[in-house]
Design brief:
The chain is α+β, with helices and mostly antiparallel strands. The protein is built from eleven helices and seven strands. It has a seven-stranded mixed beta sheet with strand order 2-1-3-7-6-5-4, sandwiched between helices. Helix 8 packs parallel to helix 10 and helix 9 (200-229) runs antiparallel to helix 10 (237-303).
Length: 343
């Protein structure tokens, strides 16, 4: 792999051929000094950097054609690695290839105007002396690590970059998890204070958010478990310990999500039950009204037919007596419903 890396450094930089670093999709290029600091490099400097002076970290936007072309043809990585670095639908994973490690992770989307469950993916190829990482959308954790390196407070090795990245990715999930738990608690209190129908839309949105986060975080846990178990010289025992701590924190967040999902499911069932009870109460009232007016409607319909021989047609007291009979009938029906505890 070192020979492949040496060949890659001898190829003419794309910035020189295509007229600018922006054509290469370069976000940053840093050379770590092994003491927690780093110096920033241009594209040409990154291509000519000697790994003996420190790990070179090249971070690219893979949607730029120059970055994709360089990774596929000039980076000196294998075909499978190049495809993984350029895959737009990558799944969190960790795999050891000859010469290096391939790591794909996800972080919550904290970019303005975006939903947190719309996760942002980061892909890394780590080999002795070099890191290649790719992304499509900005990831604050990467920016923080780069800033810390330039300030002399960053990781000291390639394995340290991985540990710092996983730690920051998972730490940023805490705010989203706390927000979900607070929303779930607010919905529970709202259901006790008011009708559940008013909270139905908010509950549905919360459940969708929980399901989305859970669907993305479960594969990340599997990738973290594989990563900390890889027998690679790029990861020291200290690095594995840091990865284990990050994985434990991720597991705790997933358990919190499971708890919130169960609470939301109970709230959803309670919403359905209350809506069903409300509908049954209204149908019950309508049934009672129909039961009361059914005989009244029958009597008025019967005495309202326009045929000869109807009793009371010639009597001036017939209408009054008939009205009294209707009132008495209604009273008897109400008394009967009361004795049956239907009212």
């Amino acid at each position: 792999m070192a020979a492949a890396y040496s060949r890659a450094k001898q190829i003419q930089p794309l910035s020189a051929a295509w007229g600018g670093e922006n054509m290469n999709g370069l976000i940053h290029a840093l050379q770590l000094d092994g003491q927690g600091g780093a110096s920033e490099l241009s594209w040409d400097q990154a291509m000519a950097a000697d790994s003996a002076n420190g790990v070179v970290w090249i971070h690219l936007d893979y949607t730029v054609s120059g970055a994709a072309e360089w990774i596929a043809n000039h980076a000196g990585v294998g075909t499978h690695v190049a495809q993984a670095l350029l895959d737009s639908n990558t799944r969190p994973r960790a795999h050891e290839y000859p010469g290096g490690l391939l790591v794909a992770l996800r972080g919550v989307n904290l970019n303005p105007g975006q939903d947190p469950e719309d996760m942002v993916a980061i892909r890394l190829w780590i080999e002795p002396g070099r890191i290649i990482s790719t992304r499509q959308r900005p990831l604050l954790s990467i920016r923080e690590i780069a800033t810390a390196l330039l300030e002399g407070k960053g990781p000291k090795s390639a394995g340290g970059v991985v540990v710092q990245l996983t730690r920051r990715l998972i730490a940023r999930m805490s705010g989203v998890i706390d927000m979900i738990e607070e929303e779930t608690t607010d919905l529970e209190e709202q259901m006790l204070a008011t009708t559940t129908l008013q909270a139905r839309d908010q509950l549905s949105q919360l459940r969708r958010q929980i399901i989305g986060l859970k669907r993305y975080l479960s594969p990340q846990r599997e990738a973290m478990e594989v990563l900390q178990q890889l027998d690679s010289d790029l990861l020291s025992d200290e690095h594995r310990m840091g990865l284990r701590e990050s994985n434990e924190r991720l597991i705790r967040y997933i358990e919190d999500l499971n708890e919130s999902r169960e609470r939301a499911a109970v709230l959803h069932e309670e919403t359905i039950n209350r809506a069903t009870d409300l509908m049954n109460q209204r149908m019950y009232v309508l049934s009672l009204v129909a039961a009361i007016f059914l005989p009244l409607g029958f009597l008025t319909g019967l005495f309202g037919i326009n045929v000869g021989g109807m009793p009371g047609v010639d009597s001036p007291w017939a209408f009054g007596l008939f009205s009294v009979a209707l009132v008495v009938t209604t009273g008897l029906m109400l008394w009967y419903f009361k004795t049956k505890h239907w009212l």
